[in-house]
Amino acid sequence: MSAYNIVSVAGSDPSGGAGIQADLKAFSAHGTFGMTVVTALTAQSTRGVAGVHPIPAEFVTRQMDTLFSDATVHAVKVGMLGTAEVTVAVAEAIGRHELPHVVVDPVMVAKSGDRLLESSAVEALRTRLLPRADLLTPNLPEAADLLDEPEATDLATMRDQARRLLEFGPRRVLIKGGHLPGGESVDILVSRDADPVEFRARRVPTRNTHGTGCTLSSSIAALLPQRPDAASAVGDAKAYLTEALRHADGIDAGGGQGPVHHFHAWWK
Question: Does residue 115 register a pLDDT over 80?
């Protein structure tokens, strides 16, 4: 059997820790074949983002139409979009080609604090793209931004925000609790047709956490076609990310916040 084809629709990270570079590594780690649609070029390193160059929306559309008219696509991960025009173009192409297993990671602000989604694009994300998502994977600041309210500070508020994010149209929401204090990292999966599921992992003491959101969402996208249900895919993806974080100090990619170790199970 040929590999599953998984597409990353996202921005480029020259440092290799996030964006399409991280997505391709995660796709490969889960035994799938990675493809890409580039939405933006960035100048960044482990120390932060120095600049963003958006790809014109019409060229993003051309990339998607050219690829999807030829290749069989088994899942799609959508990451950094940058502008409202690109957000709309991606949403329309997903609908036009009826793409399966669409995982949307709403990349809004980098860990360095640099904004990666224009404020004017948030409404396009809410109204045009999220109704086409099978799974939305916001962290706590992103969930608060989408809901236009304060960030959750406890699990009860996380659950409530995840349920209300379903009102924007995604089938499921995985709200990530990595920003909460404590010894555990807790994520909550809320679905339209199932009870909430919590995923817990011991917090890993490392500063090398660049690209964790990209890596988790792309891992889920790679696993959704291979697992019996979304909860199974999310659980396996979180376990993989936890190990990638545990081995992250084995990567020396710069003097700032480094990447996780995508190939921890293979490199000796």
Answer: no
**What is the pTM (predicted TM-score) of this model?**
0.95
Q: Any catalytic annotation for residue 213? A: yes
Residues facing residue 199 across a β-bridge: 187
Catalytic residue among 34, 209, 215, 258: 209
Interatomic CA distance for residues 26 and 175, integer angstroms: 20
Q: State the catalytic residue, choosing from 25, 77, 176, 238.
A: 176
42 classed as catalytic: no
Write the CB contacts of 239 (distance below 8 Å, at least 6 apart in sequence): 201
| Residue 209 is among the residues annotated as catalytic for this protein | yes
Enumerate the domain spans of the chain. 5-250
Catalytic residue from among 16, 213, 235, 258: 213
pLDDT tens per residue, range 191-241 = 988 899 999 999 999 999 999 999 999 999 999 999 999 999 999 999 999
Q: Is 31 a catalytic residue?
A: no
Determine the topology of domain 5-250 in CATH.
UDP-N-acetylmuramoyl-L-alanine:D-glutamate ligase (3.40.1190)
